[in-house]
Amino acid sequence: MSAVVDFPLKPEARPYLEAFSRGASLRDRQEPAWLGGYRKGSLARFAEIGFPSRRSESWRYIDLRPLQEHPLLPAHADEPAFGLEIRSLLGEIGLTAPAYRLALVDGRFAPGLSTLAGLPAGVWFGSMAAAIVERPDLVRARLEAPPSDNVRPFTALNGAFFADGFVLDIAAGVILDRPLEVVHLASGEASGSLHTRGLIAAGAGSRATVVESFAGAGEYWRNDVVELRLAEQAKLTRVVLVEEGPDAFHFGEMLANLAEASQISNFVLLLGGRTIRYDAGILAEGERSRCDLNGAFLLSARQEANILTTIDHAAPGSETREVFKGVATDRAHGAFQGRITVRPGAQKVDAQQLSQNLVLSPRAAIDTKPELEIFADDVKCSHGAAVGDLDEAALFYLRARGISNETARRMLIEAFITEAVELIDSPPLREHLLSRIARRLASLEE
């Protein structure tokens, strides 16, 4: 361990350093030297900062004590499991419409569950492990980018331990006519933490839709990081569906960079998992770029979920639209933290943020904290937040027409969430998410 860090390390980091040391010889045989250096640097960063505490403003709504007291160390599975349960889970959560599919089981590429044939010219879509060998230029350029003091602790931990993931490289001008699907499944056979890394590079003027789904069984900690780089006038639609097992921790982070006149439309739906955190950081670096960042969560029992968004407008004329909806019942706790920053000189920025939430029981809670930081004088920015219960007048109206109280409540909740889902342009994707919401609503208030 002394070869990795030469400063006092956080106590909670020690088990991860020991796990890293145990796997060092195997990694050294299988991986290029530059990747080993990146992993050691990432681990040193995590060892230095450790687990964040509730004193940190961006982590105040998530309880990390279970992970600190009972570390879930990186899972090691030589071959992904392909049992009937995994295939059934894939059939349930996967898209029914034609799509190029890349499946990951227990954090590793599963070719037997993937459909990658027929990709158009100019598109490279494959596992991160394959990309490190076949596309080292693309992967290394991102991993060896100058380190930032703002690297989050679990992003650093991901850098040290990611076993696989996916890479999508789209050449300039390529327009994909069907979605690219990435399905992350946990078999329940490999308990521990599953660290996956994704990279999407969209060339100038390209168009693509990416759907990422997460599901599984057992007790595990999913720690997923994906980086997006959109070139000039590229347009990317990304949908994320989280339906982890009831004992799972899910931390997902998206880091996006937008060039001139590029557009990203990102939607996240959080339905399953014990503790879920979704973190989106977007740098609008190019003029006239646009970001649509929307999503929803439905929580019950003792679930907790935190959505944190950070949008940095660094160029003039860029736009942001944010709409997030939250529903919590029983003893669940949800939170939305959203910050929009407009840098000096970024004139004509148009940014709007909205957080709306339903709290359906006395013991449930939802916190919402929208923020604007504006350092330019010719902008149009606004934010709003609301937390409340179902509309009693609407509930009375439905019950007066013979609809049961349970059905009426479900109809109103579904209508509330659907307002966010309708922001997705693709009808098949909307229908897919609405079917998952309907399934979740059936058990939300049981």
What's a concise summary of this model?
It is built from 11 helices and 19 strands.
List the helices and strands and how they pair.
Layout: H1 14-22, H2 24-30, H3 33-49, H4 65-69, H5 84-93, E1 100-105, E2 108-109, E3 123-127, H6 128-134, H7 136-143, H8 153-161, E4 164-170, E5 180-186, E6 192-202, E7 207-216, E8 220-230, E9 235-243, E10 249-258, E11 263-272, E12 275-284, E13 290-299, E14 304-313, E15 319-328, E16 333-342, E17 350-359, E18 365-374, E19 380-388, H9 392-399, H10 405-421, H11 427-444
Parallel strand pairs: 1-5, 4-6, 5-7, 6-8, 7-9, 8-10, 9-11, 10-12, 11-13, 12-14, 13-15, 14-16, 15-17, 16-18, 17-19
Antiparallel strand pairs: 1-2, 3-4
Helix pairs in contact: 3-8, 6-7, 9-10, 10-11
